[in-house]
Specification:
The chain is α/β, with parallel strands linked by helices and 224 residues long. It contains six helices and ten strands. Strand 4 and strand 5 (66-67) form a beta hairpin. The relative contact order is 0.21. The structure holds adenosine-5'-diphosphate and magnesium ion.
């Protein structure tokens, strides 16, 4: 089973704002982990470090026992593309592309896909996984917020990552769609993905295998 192990992460922005203070956390495949905390507590910063979207000031990130935080930039990008999928509060879909074409986007830079037909087939399968088969050919503007976020989840799965990191994925959704997204992420964890969601939405707690609370850049003890 693969895991992400973050060890003693410190992040100081502009040499003055310490957003993370020696944070350590492990995400195993098959687990649904939630990090809660008020606005400004450092949740997004933690997700960006673990997601290799930005580098920590100090500390290490091991993915499958390998310290990836010290790799050259292009190797880091490679690990990110292969191992990690992302879901954000704002869905970030390309408005010019149909739902399934948005899901294809991350595949275009993945050498494992040999041709466009293969990508298209896989993208449509993933659209099925998120329950939007009827909507594959629709543009984002024709979809509700909840549907757009489901497309974003399908896109996060495009390169079959071991881990999915979600930053406030239901921040723009009503409670009905919140349930759909959390349930979907939970199912993915049960199928073997490692999921980390950062949120300040209490209703996510019932889905979590482990919960952590963040405060002023410090990650508290694990709670179930
Ligand atoms: P949360 O996601 O919990 O709201 P953030 O990780 O966004 O918290 O922010 C943690 C702290 O780091 C805040 O004080 C925030 O202002 C600061 N911060 C976040 N990103 C940056 C940045 N790019 N540059 C400077 N300060 C930042
Ligand atoms: Mg945030």
């Amino acid at each position: 089973m693969n895991s992400i192990v973050a060890k003693d992460l410190v992040k100081v922005y502009n040499q003055k704002v310490t957003a993370l203070k020696e944070v350590s956390i492990t995400i195993n495949q098959g687990e649904f982990i939630v990090v809660m905390g008020h606005s400004g507590s450092g949740k997004s910063t933690l997700l960006q470090m673990i997601g290799l979207l930005d580098l920590p000031t100090s500390g290490s990130i091991f993915i499958n026992s390998k310290d990836v935080s010290k790799l050259p930039k292009n190797a880091i990008a490679d690990v990110r593309q292969k191992s990690l999928g992302f879901v954000f509060q704002a869905f970030h879909l390309n408005p010019q592309l149909k739902a399934y074409e948005n899901v294809m986007l991350p595949m275009l830079i993945n050498p494992e896909y040999k041709n466009k037909a293969e990508m298209e087939k896989k993208a449509k399968e993933l659209i099925d996984v998120v329950g939007l088969s009827e909507r594959a050919e629709h543009y984002p503007s024709q979809l509700s917020g909840g549907e757009q976020q489901r497309v974003a989840v399908a896109r996060a799965l495009a390169n079959d990552p071991d881990f999915i990191l979600a930053d406030e994925p239901t921040g723009n959704l009503d409670s009905e769609n919140e349930v759909i997204i959390f349930t979907l992420l939970k199912e993915l964890a049960q199928q073997g993905k490692g999921i980390m969601v950062v949120s300040h939405n209490e209703s996510i707690l019932e889905y979590a295998d482990r919960v952590y609370y963040m405060k002023d850049g410090v990650l508290g003890d694990e709670k179930r």
